[in-house]
Amino acid sequence: MTSYLLILISTVFVNNIVMVKILGLCPFMGVSKKLEAAISMGAATTFVLTLGSGSSYLIDHFLLTPFHLEYLRTLSFIVVIAGIVQFTEMVVQKTSPVLHQVLGIYLPLITTNCAVLGIPLLNVQENHNFIDSLFFGMGGAIGFSLVLVLFAGIRERLEGADVPGIFKGSAIAMITAGLMSLSFMGFSGLVK
Amino acid sequence: MLTALLVMSFIALVLGAVLGFSAIKFRVEGNPLVDKIDAILPQTQCGQCSFPGCKPYATAIAAGEADINRCPPGGEEGIRKLAELLGKDFVPFGEDTAATKPKSVAVIDENTCIGCTLCIQACPVDAISGAAKQMHTVIEAECTGCELCVPPCPVECIDMVVIRESITTWKFRHPATVNSSNNQPA
User: Fold this and answer.
1) Alpha helices in chain A (DSSP H)
2) How many residue pairs from chains A and B have C-beta atoms closer than 8 A?
3) CA of A175, closest CA in chain B: separation in Å?
4) Is residue A58 less than 8 Å (CB to CB) from chain B?
5) Would you call B3 and A75 a contact, using CB atoms and an 8 Å cutoff?
6) Are residues B65 and B154 in the same domain?
7) Are residues B79 and B64 in the same domain?
8) For chain B, how many structural domains are there in total?
9) What's the gap in Å between the CA of A7 and the closest CA on chain B?
10) Rounded CA gap, A11 and A20, in Å?
């Protein structure tokens, strides 16, 4: 039980996929302008990433490794992730058309989120078992959502701040992200 | 090689089955045509087409209940765009709809305004700022020129001022309307 808690803490804080591993920056920058959109994007990514990690593990363990088809990893993982994202988009469109409109193009773009491919590949690299993979995926996505919501909050505040002309927009956002990443360095060494 | 193909085909089959099943289960009934028509209409919400707003008019057009020539603020250009979208023929403005006027905004004469709020209640896009017994003023950026505020004013202090086309407001015109008489010189 403690090992799962440790996995969660390490993936959410110590090895945060956006701040420390620098993965998944596209939706991080793109959906962080409004707080509500950020929360929903975090939830969608959590769903996709957890499902994706689980099914990628199953495919790797039962279909690829027994037949020595390790070279098909990237291809099959991406195909499965794309399918899961499409499924998620259909569910979101049916359950909440408003959310679907708010997220817009960034919902299908979860497919191209390098964190969503990176976490399953990392699972393979670290030889996690099924439950560990699920927790790793869930923790990574929770870390992503946490940082996304924090960043959205900061960006909303930045709208009212007195930013110099040349820094307005993406520039100050990037600088803020860099400073956040710097602050996350404080967690290193928390979990070995 | 063959095992690789078989494995990938198996994955594709399973995914295809899941997606196909969910496409049927999570089907969304939408009418994208209404939204496309609504995107062409000028969003004046003035009611000159005899429908209570642009979206109801778009719905009526999509259902085939209304003709495409009922929108004066859209002008001839709007009719042509609608005709292009729907594959219908261009129809000029009929006898019952007003002809297109040049794009204008409402301006309140502040010396005459008595602060009665009747125009604020009439404005469909909330472009008039003010309160009872306070000065009313039209927010130029929000005004769509629908003229619904002009009749209610008891002191007749609202004028429609034509927008002069400047470098910042010029837009490309539909080629067929360039030589028509409804056009305004830049």
Assistant:
1) 2-9, 25-30, 35-59, 73-95, 97-103, 114-125, 130-159, 170-184
2) 42
3) 33
4) no
5) no
6) no
7) yes
8) 2
9) 29
10) 10
Q: Is the ipTM of this complex over 0.85?
A: no
User: Are B38 and B71 part of one and the same domain?
Assistant: yes
pTM over 0.80: no
Q: What's the pLDDT tens digit per position in A95-105?
A: 887 788 777 78
Torsion of CA B96, B101, B103, B109, to 10 degrees: -100
CB contact under 8 A, B26 and A75: no
Extract the tokens encoding B16: 């295809």
Q: What is the CATH number of the domain that holds B52?
A: 1.10.15.40
Residue contact B26–A83, C-beta within 8 A: no
8-state DSSP, B114: -
CATH number at residue B118: 3.30.70.20
pLDDT one-digit tens code per residue, B123-176: 888 889 988 888 899 988 888 788 888 888 898 888 888 877 777 767 776 666
CB-CB neighbors (< 8 A) of B11 in chain A: 59, 63, 76, 79-80
